[in-house]
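User: Sequence recovery, please. Input:
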């Protein structure tokens, strides 16, 4: 295809060379050959699938131009019909119209938004170009051209100038190699058409026409070559016009300068031979077109200003909305931060890499770190900095942690949930359960203590029952073996005295009665001893302190261990309190005698403020207080019985001891509680 076009171009150029053929018909023949070659190539291209609409229009235009040129050759051969020159001129007009149709398709495919402004630029430049051509080809007042010739030449000139200016504007707004090529084709064809249409006005000879005819042929071939190289000129998305600010002001400036030059030249120069009417008409047309374009520019500027003001108003409204939204977001974020900081539980947000994104003050207090050293750090790094250990490091996975600090042990529980971010993060809700853990441990300790006390009490009751039963048996045995036997013997002796009196043996009877009196006196002493074991008479007669002193002196004589009694009791003490205090001292001394191996014992009694404090302290071997329950299990109920008696009476009993450190037994007995407790009177 390109080879055919190249051959046709050579055929077009040869007649116009200085040494080429000089026949008058050579130019017309070369134009026909160029048109035929271009039509062949363009028709072949237009038949392809998806061919551009402009290519199809060019094919139709070339076909019509061939018909007009062929008609001119036939008319020249047979001499019938219109002159052959007019037919060849019609062919050139068809080529111009074809090119204008192609330009229209190309223009409306590329320009979509500012078509009116660009078309006004095209018509403004066309007007100036038409005025310039009018000055060049004007014949003056004595011209002999007919109206038809004037109209035809004007049409050719207007079409050519419109085509050149149109493609010039389109090339400036949408620059590309194809548009540059089409602009060059339009310029070449337009110049050739204007020259051919104004041969007489320009004073050209027949041989001079070879140049314009060759230019027209080359422009047609160049157009066909462009369409072959780019068969789908605007397929897909056409290139949008570029946003260059200088194009329109530059065009308007050029138009004003050109209008001034044309008017000045037309009015001043005598070479163009313009009449006054023609000069005025030329000035009106030139400056009117510039004025209209300036008015259009002003209208466009006003519209742009209004659009800009509307856009600015919308922008201000949008900015106000954004500011309001930003204030709402800021207030919401501040409230969220306030809620987070006010939360008792710790709140921590981790990203996908385990870095702490957010944390509240409660969590920072838990790990004993300021907020600056928590945010932005990996969880493991924060744990290492706080010294929380492995337990805190595994908190997000296990949900539990125990943190040992100088202030104490901290127990934490955590619940985690996924944060729907990209990538997803983790939200930890951490609660300090130290109080509940401590309470739980306290409850467990108390429960175990109560279980132990209940077990101790059960054992104590069992031992106490056995001890009471053994004491009763001892008392019964003492009464049976002692006073009862004595009373029974005295009864038999009295029977014997009766018989002696009846037999008259009075001396013997009196001796027997004397013996019976001695035996009854001994039995009375034995009964007093038994009663003293149950409740010392001295306690009943003189009170607690003398009774304790007597007890300690007796115990000291029996054990040869020094006993120191310190008493400071003011006011009356209820009898039941005195009895309980006496039994505590009695049991404590018994334990010292059995287990302590002490060399010194001190007994301190203080009564004040409604309570009685009794303390028994020795310097003996001592023992581990944790072994007290083992003593009870092994049958040693002394300490347990003392504590049980004190607690039943509303008091307390504590034992302080250690291996090799002696033992201190302290009983605190309240008057008020004991006064309300029922007292038992021995039968």
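Assistant: Recovered sequence (683 residues):
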């Amino acid at each position: 295809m390109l080879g055919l076009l190249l051959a046709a171009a050579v055929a077009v150029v040869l007649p116009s060379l200085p040494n080429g053929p000089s026949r008058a018909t050579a130019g017309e023949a070369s134009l026909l050959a160029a048109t035929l070659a271009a039509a062949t190539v363009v028709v072949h291209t237009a038949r392809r699938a998806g061919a551009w609409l402009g290519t199809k229009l060019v094919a139709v235009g070339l076909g019509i131009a061939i018909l007009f040129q062929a008609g001119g050759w036939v008319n020249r051969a047979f001499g019938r019909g219109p002159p052959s020159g007019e037919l060849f001129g019609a062919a050139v007009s068809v080529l111009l119209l074809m090119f204008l149709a192609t330009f229209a398709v190309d223009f409306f495919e590329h320009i979509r938004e500012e078509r009116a402004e660009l078309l006004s630029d095209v018509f403004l430049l066309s007007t100036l170009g038409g005025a310039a051509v009018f000055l060049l080809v004007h014949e003056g007042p004595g011209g002999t051209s007919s109206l038809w010739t004037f109209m035809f030449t004007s049409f050719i000139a207007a079409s050519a100038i419109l085509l050149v200016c149109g493609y010039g504007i389109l090339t400036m707004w949408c620059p590309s190699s194809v548009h540059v090529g089409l602009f060059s084709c339009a310029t070449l064809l337009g110049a050739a058409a204007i020259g051919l249409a104004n041969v007489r006005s320009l004073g050209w000879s027949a041989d001079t026409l070879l140049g314009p005819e060759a230019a027209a042929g080359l422009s047609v071939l160049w157009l066909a070559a462009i369409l072959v190289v780019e068969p789908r000129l605007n397929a897909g998305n056409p290139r949008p016009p570029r946003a260059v600010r200088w194009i329109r002001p530059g065009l308007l400036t050029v138009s004003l300068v050109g209008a001034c030059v044309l008017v000045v030249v037309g009015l001043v120069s005598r070479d163009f031979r313009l009449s006054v009417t023609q000069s005025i008409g030329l000035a009106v047309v030139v400056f009117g077109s510039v004025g209209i374009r300036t008015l259009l520019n002003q209208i466009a500027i006003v519209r742009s200003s209004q659009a800009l003001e509307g856009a600015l108003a919308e922008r201000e409204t949008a900015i106000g909305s954004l500011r309001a939204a930003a204030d709402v977001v800021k207030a919401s974020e501040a409230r969220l931060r306030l809620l987070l900081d006010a939360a008792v539980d710790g709140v921590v947000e981790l990203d996908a890499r385990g870095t702490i994104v957010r944390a509240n003050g409660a969590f920072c207090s838990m790990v004993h770190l300021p907020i600056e050293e928590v945010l932005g750090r990996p969880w493991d790094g924060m744990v290492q900095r706080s010294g929380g250990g492995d337990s805190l490091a595994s908190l997000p996975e296990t949900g539990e942690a125990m943190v040992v600090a100088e202030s104490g042990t901290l127990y934490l529980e955590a619940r985690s949930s996924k944060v729907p971010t990209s990538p997803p993060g983790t939200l930890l809700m951490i609660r300090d359960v130290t109080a509940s853990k401590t309470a739980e441990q306290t409850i467990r300790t108390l429960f175990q203590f109560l279980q132990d006390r209940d077990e101790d009490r059960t054992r104590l009751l069992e031992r106490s029952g056995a001890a009471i039963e053994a004491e009763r048996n001892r008392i019964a045995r003492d009464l049976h073996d002692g006073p009862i036997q004595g009373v029974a013997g005295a009864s038999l002796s009295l029977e014997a005295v009766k018989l002696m009196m009846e037999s008259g043996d009075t001396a013997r009877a009196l001796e027997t009665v004397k013996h019976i009196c001695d035996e009854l006196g001994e039995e009375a002493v034995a009964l007093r001893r038994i009663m003293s074991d149950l409740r010392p008479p001295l306690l009943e007669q003189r009170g607690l302190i003398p009774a304790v002193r007597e007890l300690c002196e007796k115990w000291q004589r029996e054990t040869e261990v020094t006993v120191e009694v310190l008493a400071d009791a003011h006011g009356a003490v209820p009898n039941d309190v005195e009895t309980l205090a006496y039994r505590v001292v009695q049991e404590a001394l018994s334990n010292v005698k059995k287990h302590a191996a002490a060399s010194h014992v001190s007994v301190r009694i203080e009564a004040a403020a409604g309570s009685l404090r009794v303390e028994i302290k020795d310097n003996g071997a001592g023992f581990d207080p944790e072994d007290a329950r083992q003593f009870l299990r092994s049958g040693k109920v002394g300490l347990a019985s003392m504590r049980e008696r004190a607690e039943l009476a509303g008091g307390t009993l504590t034992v302080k001891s250690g291996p090799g450190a002696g033992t201190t037994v302290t009983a605190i007995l309240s008057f008020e509680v004991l006064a309300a407790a029922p007292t038992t009177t021995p039968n």
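The chain is about 65% helix and 10% strand.
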